[in-house]
Fold each of these.
Amino acid sequence: MDSEHFGTRAIHGGQHPDPSTGAVMPPIYQTSTYAQKAPGDHQGYEYSRTQNPTRHALERSLASIEGGSHGLAFGSGLAAVDACMKLLSPGDEVISTNDLYGGTYRQFVKVYEKYGLKFHFTPMGHAADVASLVSANTKMIWVETPTNPMLNVIDIAAMARIAKEAGALLVVDNTFATPYLQQPIALGADIVLHSATKYLGGHSDLVLGALVVHDDALAEKLYFIQNATGAVCGPMDSFLALRGIKTLHVRMDRHMQNAAAIADFLKGHPAVSAVVYPGFEDHPGHAIAKAQMSGFGGMISFRVASDSFQDASKVVSHLKLFTLAESLGGVESLSGHPASMTHASIPKDQREASGITDGLIRLSVGIEDVRDLKADLDAALSLLL
């Protein structure tokens, strides 16, 4: 199956008909425990925190689509982040991009700093700037690319070289790009992370996190953490995520088609002062995105002309098809105000230094008819003229 193209792996990777019934889709094993013939004599399943056939089907699929050998599914994206942090020890240091999901930042600073971990938040546009922060205590480099919400693009291969030289792990949050557009393991990443709540699930009906690795020893450490701390996803969410993955490549093509058209539309709108979209040639990371991604994704951020909370709030409150809600990656279009929603946990001065100003709006462009999406944006933005 590893030799198949992505669309085939998305549907068939790691999957096989249920041996007992021939069911094409893995059954939802809604059970907490499993019968044993004698103590220790079982069929590979003892307790559903440790092993569940539906979750295992999802984990095999995750490994297949990311080009890894091991997949792990968690109760949320932040539970997956938490598992990565538990690989570290007091005194260890993490170099992280400064532009990252607010929940990840909150976990790093509010939860793990008090346990003796040290975090360095820095722009990662220049590899030399990252390398200058490496010390003997550097044990992990944390990358989001494209970043949330400023859509900065980070050179994964360059970060992998720095991590390898430092003897550190490279973790890449691949949520925005998805495995369809970007393969971090092939570029040198040790761990790939997803909020599978987003594009992998694709229908805004589950909360789930994922990790994929290619190293057996690292996988064993993470499997131990997954079981020991118990932040696993349930079988129903596993089933829904697996179903979502089967259409990922089809959905992403439409997300990207619509996003490119919306980005062009916004760039020419008089109520908009800036549009951030990696597909634009003047985007600082365009060349890297073109080299390490097979498309530019379905996310756009833009700034209203006044760069004020009042105007940004007016726009998102009057959108009809772009539902004002946290999250992204569903078939329906969503709008968000990062400064007051997804990134509110980041101090204002740090937010603004990263470009997350009060006038910034983030769009997750869905797969509706793009003509209707343009009309919706135009009607809301016209209120500012």
Note: The chain has 14 helices and twelve strands.
Amino acid sequence: MAEIRRYPFLRHLRSEASVHVTHYRKGRKRRSGRGLAFWFRPDGASIAEIPMDDRDTPFLFHGRSKDYQEVTVQGLITWRVVDPAGLAERLDFTIDLKTGAYLAEPLDQVATLLTGLARQEALRYLAELPIDGLLENGLAPVQACVERGLTSAERLKAMGIEAVTVRLADIAPSAELDRALQTPTFEALQQRADQATFERRALAVEKERAIAENELQNRIELARRESQLIAQDDENARNRAKGEAEARQITAEGEAERIRVVGQARAETEKARMDIYRDLPRDILMALAAREFAGKLTSIEHLNVTPDLLGTLLGDLARAGAKRLEHGAHADAD
């Protein structure tokens, strides 16, 4: 927007380089160009200001596909002025000489014109395909169709306007139809997720089965080894028992042999003693018996000696002494 300073009887206008200004004085063109700055008298003056930079015009409109489904197209048109004089003749770009603002709304008229042309071209394309074909083809065909329509539009050329670019942001069906179209995809994805879940569960079951089989095999192997260990323990116990029995038998046989030998020795000793005692006289045997008896006694509390016993003992002793003397005399004679 141009900057206008007011002075008594005069005013000064300063415009930017991106703006084309045309100054009329009483119906005659006084000056025209970009980025002008000049003094002028407000009475009888008229000034038009036309932007020369690229301008963006967004658009949003609804259409129907070939199968009568509602479709929303959203995008942006970039345009610029190539003939400011021609555009000034077609649209009112006159500014207020006090504020510099437009007296009309020329930019909105240009936006309406561009949007209408774009909508016309887009609706023509939308009506040729069903909704699934439109969504499958995407944004590029619609964008190319709108660009061709705006580039070849004779009305824009006559007004001195050029469409620089057309950018489409979205082409979408209604919310209900969008959800309906997404349902097969959602179902397919859900089926894939379910299939993955089933496969994961099947793999888990297979792994659990393999683990169970491995544990069973380990238990079988442990049971087999335990059976072998029990059999070996039994065999070792039998061998130990057999060895102990044989050792006891050998010990018993040795003890029996020892007892037999000792008994035999005692018997032989006793026999020898008996042989000795058999030839001894009666009195000697009595004396030996008395000595043996005396050796067995620990103490004698009472001893009764009768005259008969004493006489008998004395007689025996006398006879024994006499026999010894005889034996001694025979020995000396020999």
Note: Residues 175-278 form the longest helix (104 residues).
Amino acid sequence: MGRVADAALAAGAHVTGVIPESLMQREAGHRGLTELHVVKTMHDRKRLMADRADAFVALPGGIGTFEELFEVWSWQHLGYHDRPIGLLDVAGYFAPMQAMLEGAVGAGFVTRAQMGMINVCADPESLLDMMAAKAARADAPDDFRRI
């Protein structure tokens, strides 16, 4: 995430970081961000990020990425938010997960409508266009913006 933050900062973007105290102590957080919020717990981190997010985009990552992706996806399914969700599928990273989820559809555990909540694309620009178009169709809040 540090490289993404550095690239965004270099491009002139406003970059906000949210990190729990325990990780801040271990990783020393990115101190060059526009804003850095140090919160008590991971739950506080996710709550603050979700409250401030216009959309959710997962890049290739590990268990934390998967956990946060599935949480915002289930929140959307439950009606807690209507903001777009995207997967930036760099080099087919998410293809095995998509195959697993298609298996869940076939087994009746995930619906086609639930699968449709996730936008997947390998090109960042196209992914953001897909998400913006879906947000517009869903009568999303006017504050959705491409970052």
Note: The first strand starts at residue 16 and ends at 20.
Amino acid sequence: MTMKTVSNAFLNERKRFNNFIKMKGIRTVEKDGSESYEIKHEDLVTFKRIDKDLTSYILAMKNIPRSFLCSLIHHYDAYLGRLLRMAFFVKPELLNASQKQLLFTDLVAFPSIEAAREYMIEKEVETVIRDSHVAHFDWMENRFKLNLRKELSIWPKFVEITERRNLFVHCDGVASSQYFTMCQKHGVKLEKQIKVGEELGVTPDYIQQAVECILEIGVKLGHVLWRKLQPDNLSDADIALHHATYDFLVEERYALTKTLLNFAVKTPIIKSSEEIKCFNLINLAIAQNFSAERTQALATLKSHDWSASEDRFKLAVAVLERRHDDAVLIMKRIGSKGPVTRVEYSSWPLFKDFRNTTEFLATYKELFGEEFILPKVDDLEDKEEKKVSTKVAE
């Protein structure tokens, strides 16, 4: 939204600049066919002011995307700091490996051992966060005894994003030998035209990819540490991951949804709830289906035996397999007060295409006694049952 506003303002300012040149400038056609304009002395002050305004917009077009990328990494760093603080509070023994020391004179200045511990945690986290993003993972893998980068295909992208951010902060975006060394070391495939000394930028596509990458890294990292440090709290972890992936599915961020749901259903982590597992499989199939990956969606459905599942899951399978007659029968069996309510029929992406069929519309009217009307997004936001996953939380 910000870039659209700046871009429109830039175009208006460029139009203003060009109009001034054409109206006030004295045009000369050079021998090579190019044009030049001479500004009269009495118009020079106005010209300089317009030229300065245009230059400001050009700089804004360049610098605002850079600031967005830097801000994105800033928020990730803050998240990582909170995550590590929580890890130390959950497992205080992790501080045993810390190299930080307190003199007795410093220790007695604290009102309690808890206050001293909090101080030590802050210092330990601060030391970690001040290092490079690659070093963060080295430290966490060593301290938590985990291989956090195993099968993490997004890792090279993460390294390039964080290294590019460093260029903007420290080198005005100019590619350095350090940037190339880090990228080469971690398998980053750079564009061939990028060379040392070249000034890098940030396109809309690049910032979108960066957002998706940081979200994936952040969610996966948080859940791996959560499950490692609190193995008795898997139920909350499963529900939290389910809610996060459902939100991405509703936003139609299918690539990210698929990545995180594959992480949820295929990684060797203990599932606390068969219900959560079923929801994740269904939502993964939905994301695949709307990504033009129908074969994969059907394979995902076939990977599970749905014969003993609840009717809402059988309904989902029937809808995704486009067995509309079976779906109608299951809708009637569920009824108007079953686990799939009118809100779910309106909001669950599962029904995105099915809602447009005559079978669905007729059955919905039969069940609820009214025509189906797709609610506005604002209306759904005010309802506690806007997600099917709400039932799981209950």
Note: Residues 54 and 226 are 50 Å apart (CA to CA).
